[in-house]
Specification:
The structure is a single chain. Helices cover 39% and strands 17% of the residues. It is an alpha/beta fold. Strand 5, helix 4 and strand 6 form a beta-alpha-beta unit. It is elongated, with a radius of gyration of 29 Å.
Length: 173
């Protein structure tokens, strides 16, 4: 039996659709290569510090990027060093109740980290070890000052305060 033109066209279309689809990997490899290079180039421009959701850092127009340091985090109910809880308590209580316990725990943890890092180089001795303090914008200055004094009593004297960078205002021409 002779097939009509329409029947032949439908048969060719069915044969073409029955074949397995082919994936062009060359184009995908090009895209992923460009993506990898883009991420590698732009990786060093932004530094993101580990932060708690409950901490609102103070805002600042800071141009200096943070570096890898020991992180001291002040939360509403305690102190963390490198993400590890060192002391938990209530800041609202009389400081005579919690200050000795906090001083002992924080000093022990900072001395442990200093011993693990090894001795300071002679050129670093006057400055001391580096430490970054992450605290809520509402953290009382008296508490911040006490924690800084505890850190300075150990080898951690190069202290930095973490802030949230805001873009400086740009005037329109």
């Amino acid at each position: 039996m002779k097939m009509s033109f329409r029947a032949k066209r439908l048969e060719r279309q069915n044969q073409r659709l029955a074949q397995a689809g082919k994936l062009n990997l060359v184009a995908l490899m090009d895209i992923f290569t460009i993506l990898v290079f883009f991420l590698m180039v732009n990786q060093s421009e932004v530094k993101v510090l580990q932060s708690n959701k409950e901490i609102n850092l103070p805002r600042s127009v800071s141009e200096q990027l943070p570096s890898e340091k020991v992180m001291l985090t002040i939360t509403t109910n305690g102190v963390l060093v490198q993400g590890k809880p060192v002391w938990q308590g209530d800041w609202q209580q009389d400081s005579n109740n919690w200050l000795p316990e906090l001083t002992e725990a924080l000093t022990a943890e900072l001395n442990y980290l200093a011993n693990r890092a090894g001795p300071l180089a002679p050129e670093q001795q006057p400055v001391g070890r580096a430490l970054t303090i992450l605290g809520d914008a509402a953290t009382p200055y008296a508490l911040l000052r006490r924690l800084m004094a505890i850190c300075a009593a150990t080898e951690y004297r190069d202290l930095s305060l973490a802030v949230e960078a805001i873009a400086p205002a740009v005037e329109a021409p």
